[in-house]
Amino acid sequence: MSRDTPIDKQRRSTDVSSDDSRSSQHGGERRVVTALCYDLIGSTNLFNLMDIEDYQDMIAAFQQAARQAITTHSGVVRVEAGDGGVALFPIELGPRDAASAAIRAGVGIVKACQRLARELDRDDLRVRVGVATSVALIRDAQLQNWIHEPVTGAALALATRLEAAAEADSVLVSEETRNLAGRSHAFVPEGTRMLKGFSEPENVWRAIGHRRELDRFHAFGRLDGTFVGRVAELDRIEKAWDAAVGGKGQVLAITGQAGIGKSRLLRQARRMIHAQPARSLFFQCLPGGFRSTLHPLVNSFSQRRSDAADGGRLTVDAVAAQFARHGVEDPEVIGIFSHLLGADGRNEAFSDSSPKSIQKSARQALSKVLSVICGQTPLVIAVEDIHWIDPTSEYLLREAARLVPTLPALLIVTSRENRHASLFDEGEPEHISLGPLDHDETRLAIAARWPSHRQEALPQLLEVSERISGGVPLFIEEICQWAFETAAEDAMSVPANASRNHVSAFEGILNSRLEHLGSARDVARAGAVAGDRFTVSLLRPLLPEASRKSLLHAAETLCESGFLTRVRAHGGIAYGFRHALIQETIYNGLLKTQRRLLHRRLFMAANSNRAIAGWLDAGALAEHAEAAGLPEHAVSSFMRAGMEHASRSAMVEARHHLERALALCETMPNGVSDELHLSVLTVLGPLLTATVGPNSTPARILYEKGVEIARRQPKEDQPKWFPLYWGWWLTGQNFMEMHSRARKVQAMLSGIADREIELQVNHSIWAIEFNVGRQGEAQKAIRAGLALYDDEAAKASRNVFGGHDAKVCGLGQLALSLWLTGHTEESSKALADMVAFVDRIAHMPSKSHSLDTEAVSAFYRNDHARLIEISGRMGDFAKKHELQSLSALAMLFRGWATAHVENLSRGHEIFRAGLALLRELGTVADLPIYLYMHATMLGQARKYETAIEVATEAIREANATGHGYWLAELHRRRALLLSCAKVEEPALLPDLRTAIVIAQEQGAVALLHRSQRSAKELGLAGEL
C-alpha cells in the first residue's frame, strides 16, 4: 500500500492519559487520536501467483472484511489503498475507549483474514496491523465529520511503522496505546524498536486478546482509593481461603446495608487471594435480575454487544469457548448450559425434557465443571448481590455450596438482606456481617478521600462529615466528591437536609451534586429509569430535545463525577451507575409523572427498534410498559418473556412473568381484555400443570376461570380457546370428575365445525372412558376420533394435547382395550400399527408414550420375556433423551419381569427403585396397577400380611380416584393372597364375587376369565 502519510519527524513523547483539547494558534484543536494501519503481506507475490480476477475478488473480500471490523468498533476508514488502509477512531469515545476499540478492530481484521484464507484454502494469505496513539492537531474537532478533516500528529505515521514491523497475523501497538487500553486488553512486550522517521526508540507491545469485562470498581482505571478498616473480616476470609487450599472448601456470606462496603471487601479479598496461584470466577447479580434466567452467567460473556439488535445473543460456540477457557470441554456440560442460557444453535431436544430432568443434568454438569477447575488449581467463586439473583442461578448456587466443602474452593456471596440464611441447604455458611466503620476508621477514610485542593476546609467539616456519613463508605465517598465539586469556599457548607438520618443525608448530597451538573442531571434521571445499562442512542428518545453531542458530553460528565461508569461491551460503549443505591435514590426522587413519561418513551423506542436496547429482554420491556401505564403492551411482553424462559426450562422465571401478565389482565374491565386474558391463561395453564401438577389448586382455578371466560366468547372463536377446555378436563380432581368434564366439553363444543377439535374431544373421552373401565365407550371414541385424524394438523396438536400424538395414543389405547375385552388378535394388530406409525412420525414424546403402551400390553399378557426386551428398549431410549420418568417405568417393568423369570428378590428391588423414582418425580399415573405388582411380588416372597395390606391400599386408591379398569384384578389378587395366608374360604368370596361382577359390567372378558379360573382353582366356583 502507499506509504505517503506525512510523518512528524520531530515527534516528542506526550502524556495522553487525558483529553487535551486546547486550541492551537494556527487554528484547530489538540486532541488525543488513535490510528490503525493494516496491510496484506506479500500481495505482489499473490498477484503473480493468482488469476487476475481471482486476485481482484480476494482483495475486495479482504477490504470488505477489514472495513466491517473497523466500523463495527466505531472506527472510520480514512485511507483505503489496494491491499491495505488507515483508520481513525472517534475522539468522542474518549482516549481509553478509542484505543481499546482500535485494538479490537485490529484483532478483528486478523481474524477476518484468517477466515478468508481458510475459505480460499490459501496458507499464504496473512495480514499485519499497527495501532498508535498520540496528541494531534485537528482543524475543526467540533465538526461531526472531523475525522475527514486534516489531522497533524504522530499517530498516523507511527501506526504505519508499527504495521511494517509486525509479524504475520499480529497487532503491534505503541506504548501510549497500551497504557490507555491496559485494563481492557492483554499484551506481550515486543521490546524497543527504532522506527523509521522517529528520533527516539519506541516500546512496542503485541495485543493478544480482550480481557473480561471489569467490575464497577475497575471501570476505565477508576479505583475507589485507599482501603480502610475491615482487618478482622479480611483475616477471617484469609483463614477460610487457607482451609480451602488445603482441600476443605468454605462458604462465606458477607451481608450488610447498601453502600456499607461489601463489594470493596470482596475486591480486597480477591486481590489478597490472587497473590497466590488461584483461579477466580466472578458473577454479578443485577437489579431486576430475578426475571432473567442465569443473568450473572450471561453477563460474564465479554463478547455480548450493547448495541446489537439481538442483544448480543449467545451461541453454542461462545458457550463452548467460555468453558474451554477454564479447561472444560465436556459436550454434555456445553449442551445443558447452552440450553439454560438459550444459546443459538442449542440442542432443542432438551425442550422436551421435564424440569426435574433438566435440573438433574444441570447439577451433574456443575459438579463436572467444579471438579475440572479445582483439579487444576484452588478456586474462588464470588457471587455479588444475591438479593437480586434469579431462581435458576439460585438453584445452581445452592448446589455449588453443597459441593464446595469437598473441593479446594472458596465460595463468597454478598447480599444486602440476610438472604444466605435460607439459601443454603447444607448448613449455615460462615457469616460476615458488615457494620459502619468505627470513629477512627471513618475519619481516616474521609481524610484519605478528601480532595487535595480543599484540605484547608477539612478540619471544620470533618466532624459533621463523619456524623452525616454514619461510617458508611459509599456515603463518605459522596461527601468527599461533593467537596471536590464545590466551586467556591463560601459554598463549602453541608446541605440543609444533612441533619436527618444517614439515608436522607445521602439523598440530599446526591441532589446537591446533581443540581450543579446542569443538563447532566436530566441524563442521570433518564438513566435511572433505563436501568442497569444505557447508551447515548437510547438516551436520545428519552430526552428528544437534547442533541447526541450534548448527551455524550453529559454522560461523560457523570462518569467523571463518579455517578456513572462506562460499561464495556463488544461493539460499543454503554453506561451504568457506579452503585445501585445511587440509581435507586435518583429514581425515587422522580415525580410519578416524570417516571411514567420516561418509561413510556423508553418502551416505545425499544419496542419499535430492538437494536436501540438489545440487551433488554422481553421481561424488562414488560416492566417498562407496566411502569409507563401501558397494560396491554405489558401483558404481551410478559407473555413473550414467559414463553422464552419456559423454552429454556426456567419454569420459575416463566411462571413469574406469566402470573404478572395475568394479574394485569385482572385489573382491566371485563370484556375489554377477554382475548388478552384468555391468551395468558392458555400459555400459563400448561406450565402450571407441568410444574405443580394437573391436580394442583392453582391449575384447577386457572382452567375454571379460563372456561368461564371462553364460554362467553362468540361461537366462531371457540376453536381458538380449545386448549383451555382441554386443560379444564385434564385438571379434574379424579377420574370421575374428569369423566364428567370430558362429556361436558363434548356438549359445550357440539356444533363447532372443526375436525381437529372434534378429534381431541374424542381423545379426552377415550382416555377417561378407558380408565374408568367403560371399554365399549372408549373403543367407540377411538374409532370416531381416528377417522378425523389429519397428518398436518397433528404436527402442532401432538405438542399441545397430552404431549403426544393422538393417533399413537388412540391405537395404543385400542390395543389395550381390545385385549381387556377378549379380542387378542385385533389387539396385537392395533399394537403393531401403533409401533409402525410412531416410528414413521419420529416424535420423541409419542415414542415414549408408545413404549409405555408396549410394556403395559406385555404386562397384561404375562409375557415376561417380551417385557424384559421392551424395558431394555425403554431404558436405552430414556437414557438417550434424558427422560427420567420413562427410565423409572423401564426399571419398574424390568423388575416385574425379572422377578418372574430370573430372581424374585433382585427383580423386586429393581421394581421398588423404579416406583420410588416415579414418586420422587411426581409422575405416578397408574398407582393401583403398580401397587398390584408390588403386592403380587410380596406374596411370591410369602410376605402375605404386608401383601394383603398393599392390595387393600390399591383397591382403596382405585375406588377413591375412579381408576376402575384394573379393579377386578385387584380384588382377584387380594382373594389369592388371603388364600395363601390360610384365611378361611368364606373370607375369599366377597373379593371373587366383586372381581367377577366388575369384569362383567366392564365387558373385560380377559379379566373375567382370570377371576373365574381362580375361583375354580380355589374350589369356590360353585359358591359364586
UniProtKB/TrEMBL annotation:
MF-aspect GO terms: adenylate cyclase activity; ATP binding
Region annotation Disordered: where it falls in the sequence: 1-27
GO biological process assignments: cyclic nucleotide biosynthetic process; intracellular signal transduction
SMART domains, per the entry: CYCc
Keyword field contains Lyase: no
Domain called Guanylate cyclase: residue spans: 9-191
Spans through the membrane: none
PANTHER family (UniProt xref): GUANYLATE CYCLASE DOMAIN-CONTAINING PROTEIN (PTHR16305:SF28), TESTICULAR SOLUBLE ADENYLYL CYCLASE (PTHR16305)
Record-given protein name: AAA family ATPase
Organism this protein belongs to: Rhizobium laguerreae
